[in-house]
Amino acid sequence: MSLMSFITPSLVNSAVQSITPILLAALAGTLCGRVGVFNMAMEGQLLVGAFAAVVGSYATGSALGGVLFAIVFTVLFSLILAYGATVFKGDAVVICIGMNLLASGLTAYLLRQMFGVSGTFSDPAIVGLTKIRIDAINTIPWIGWIFSRQTAITWLAWILTAAVTIMMFRTPVGLRLRGVGEDASAAGTMGIDVTRYRVLTVLFAGGLTGLGGAQLSLGTVSIFSEDMSAGRGWIAVVAVMLGRNHPLWAALACVLFGVADALSVRLQSQGLPNQLTDIVPYVVTLLALALSHRKRLKRRAAETLTAHA
Length: 309
Known about the structure:
Layout: H1 3-6, H2 9-34, H3 42-60, H4 63-85, H5 92-115, E1 120-122, H6 135-138, H7 143-147, H8 152-170, H9 172-182, H10 184-189, H11 194-220, E2 223-225, H12 232-243, H13 247-269, H14 274-277, H15 280-308
Antiparallel strand pairs: 1-2
Helix pairs in contact: 2-8, 2-11, 2-12, 2-13, 3-4, 3-5, 3-11, 3-12, 4-5, 4-11, 8-9, 12-13, 13-15
């Protein structure tokens, strides 16, 4: 099989869909990082959002109802990090690990209590997100497949990426956010309420990961499976680290991981065992981290030589 026959419009379409939840989670992590809160809880937040989306869609009979449930309940879940790491001065890493474990156990427990099933829940009453078809480009090869068969959340994710970038680097609010993260004491002396900025940013980030969770459970499929976030939140953490808390660089890293995720599914359809294909995104993640670390070491070595010259 040639490379061109392997790369098909459906593969690219799947990659774009795979990128969406990771991108929204990475955007959330970037915002939190800018205000000085290290958010590692995206894995659990995505899972809570995915579960709440299915519950909302099942209860209201509407995909929009599911999305609203996902946003609201993920924001409520994010209160643990928002107040734990700011008001109560807890260790953000410890809090996030606890949140991830809590989300996994809580969603599995609620799945049994609410629907009487374990593992996977699906029902005809769950309404998935509608794919937006743009008639003007729908019949164009490749372009139609890629851009005319995506959900509204996918489009919204990229719009939000541009909006957050502009807000962060071109507005007074963004300047205050960055000031809170870089030097909280100095920001406080300028009259900025550091705690309020941090709490509101973490809650807004929770809403973003809730959207990502809704895309997971209502975007491609209309089901909920235990631990269906499947490491995407951790991959988003890596994207934030590679992007150094810059939304656009983090988005580029998400594109790499989304392609790797879609590629793993395609390889599985070619007959490779899923135990092997499932590790593709994580291998790519580790390689990206290793290359980034090596580049950083080289830069530091060059700076050291320049300083001693």
